[in-house]
Amino acid sequence: MYVVAWIPIAVLLMGIVARGGTVSYTEAALILVPMCFVYAFICQASWYLCAAVPLRQTEPFRLVTTHATAALVSAATWIGIGWLWTWFLDSSGYVEGIQQRYTTQLAILFFSGLLLFALAIVLNYLLITFETSQLAEKKTLELQVLAREAELKALRAQIDPHFLFNCLNSISALVTTDAAAARRMCILLADFFRGCLKLGHQQRIPLAEELRLAECYLDIERVRLGSRLHVERNIGEDSEACMVPPLIIQPLVENAITHGIGSMLEGGVVRVEAQRNGAGVRIVVENPYDPDLGRRAGTGVGLNNVRMRLENLYSGDARLDIDREDRRFRVQLQLPCERGA
After folding, report:
1. Chain segment 71-129, per-residue pLDDT in tens
2. Quick count: other Cβ atoms within 10 Å of Cβ 248?
């Protein structure tokens, strides 16, 4: 493509050289087609010169003198190659007198060589600037991805100890009042973390697996709360295959227990719902709460953690909505329904 781009340049120079009638169009073509082919590669070398003398990091005087010297040398070399070529044609008898007629065009050809080399320099600087911009943009995106991955790893690492601390507190409370229940909770807790380890470090898991983890957590809490905790599930079958971040629902049901059912003597019902919603999936966790008691002090993980993970994973394509109405606390997640490979 680069060589093809020189064809109109060669045609233009042929017209300029042959305009006075001293050199015919045939002779102009015989001279300039090989010369333009050679000069195309000479001008291509200006790329390395532009790379060695950056536009913004070089003093103006050095920049001008460097490129001016290179242009003069390149144009003179080009004219010298043309002189050798016409000498060969003339001395071999192919075109008699062509070297003398070529000599009459030296000034215009030399000036054209300077302009072409200067044009090559300008184009190369534009290409370098474009490539630098593309590399900077790519590097910025890579840094954003690395920062986002690091933040997600920190958030996920924060979930496990937060959940574990709450469970250990519950076990500690049961040890003195109901040892059998404490032992059962330890077994359920081991099953829960076994399920988490089975998932490894996957970025997405089917919603069905995530719901099973949440159900396992609720089983643990049933040991502590007994008949005070009831669970209602309304799960659409077409939603279970949607891929979701692991442990995205568990903090919601944990929040429902810790700040809802657990603070009410009469207990209540935790309702978990998951339904397809167009191209997405809607997940709802709802529980009763006592507004007069307020929220118990915590570490601030929970809902804020979920919100931050959604922002990092989906960049605005997912949301978390919270409603408090009629002594009911309702958390709704709206996620894109991604399918597994």
Report:
1. 999 999 999 999 999 999 888 888 888 888 889 889 999 999 999 999 999 999 999 99
2. 25
Distance set, CA 293 to CA 71, 259, 302 (Å): 83, 9, 19
pLDDT band at residue 286 using 50, 70 and 90 as cut-offs:
very high
Is 270 a residue whose pLDDT tops 60?
A: yes
324 pairs with which residues across the strands?
Answer: 329
Residue 62: HSE in the Cβ half-sphere, 13 Å Cα cutoff: 10
Beta strands in 194-292 (DSSP E): 205-206, 229-235, 242-244, 268-277, 280-288
For residues 267 and 34, which has the higher predicted lDDT (pLDDT)? 34
139 alpha-carbon distance from chain centroid: 9
Question: For position 148, what pLDDT does the model report?
Answer: 61
Distance, CA of 312 to chain centre: 12
Rounded to whole angstroms, how far apart are CA atoms 241 and 9? 61
Sheet with 328-336, strands from edge to edge, namely: 229-235, 268-277, 280-288, 328-336, 319-325
CB 239 within 8 A of CB 336: no
CATH superfamily of domain region 178-339: Histidine kinase-like ATPase, C-terminal domain (3.30.565.10)
- How far, in whole angstroms, is CA 156 from its chain's centroid? 21
Give the domain ranges of the chain: 2-138, 178-339
pTM of the model: 0.53
**For residue 25, what are its two tokens?**
């169009």
For residue 322, what is the DSSP state? E
Q: Which of 171-180, 215-224, 247-256, 271-280 has the highest mean pLDDT?
A: 271-280
Q: What is the DSSP string of 98-123?
A: HHHHHHTTHHHHHHHHHHHHHHHHHH
- List the one residue out of 226, 291, 224 whose CA is nearest residue 259: 291
CA nearest to 203, candidates 150, 244, 144, 161: 244
In angstroms, rounded to a whole number, what is the distance separating the alpha carbons of residues 96 and 236? 92
8 A C-beta contact, residue 287 and residue 329: yes
